Amino acid sequence: MxxxxxxxxxxxxxxxxxxxxxxxxECRDGVVMALDLGLRHIDTAxxxxxxKDVGQAIAKSGVKREEIFLVTKxxxxxxxRRHFIxxxxxxxxxxxxxxxxxxxxHWPPDEEDFDSAIDxxxxxxxxxxxxxxxxxxxxxxxxxxxxKRATLPLINNQVExxxxxxQSRVRAEAKKLGIVLSAYSPLGRGAxxxxxxxxxxxxxxxxxxxxxxLRWIVQQGVVALPMTTKRDNAKSNMxxxxxxxxxxxxATLSEASKQxxxxxxxxxxxxxxxx
Length: 275
Prior knowledge:
Elements: E1 17-18, H1 24-37, E2 41-43, H2 51-61, E3 69-74, H3 84-95, E4 100-105, H4 114-126, E5 130-136, H5 140-149, E6 154-160, H6 168-176, E7 180-184, H7 196-205, H8 209-218, E8 223-224, H9 231-238, H10 247-256
Parallel strand pairs: 1-2, 2-3, 3-4, 4-5, 5-6, 6-7, 7-8
Helix pairs in contact: 1-2, 2-3, 7-8
């Protein structure tokens, strides 16, 4: 699967490899496996404490740097003006690269750091440390505020997105702003695979529930970032481009998402989520 196909309008590969919570040899082996299979989108973050492992895996893989779409995220503790760029340079050193393809703010900044964090994000792109920039876990109001403040285009908002959580309003507003959503925890930490609606569609189409759940995401133009350490599962994930879901099946899964089972909402970090 080449980097020039199966990507969003702004150049993000629609299927990536999520590295959380992998560290050490497990992370290195996972990233090497993903790259060996043909995946070219690798997602990490300062908070994951695995950037060095990801960098070593990329070097070991033999895949050319320019073929890989590499994402990292700035941790909340580093969003202040004094720490932002310094922490990014530290991340680049760990990753052993000169720039990342996409740099995100991992969680919304505190009020006093909001404007400076967006400014620093733009500085990172303008100075060549990141090819593109965006945010993560930003609600509709925060996304609008960030886009208004930014002097360069924000192209991505990485959010919890799966068939048990209705993020259709966030997706619609993001589209108006020229922002593509990326889905972390696209299988809802396994809960999606047991949902009756997903299971029914999977059985009828003769495909694993994981493929159905991931296909529902990418068919909406949302990037999916599943994590797996198992080669067979990673291969299966890549088969989501071999088929399409009917409008009826898409609607069935969208209806299931109205359960609104948000699984990730850390106290102290999470914003007031959109309703």
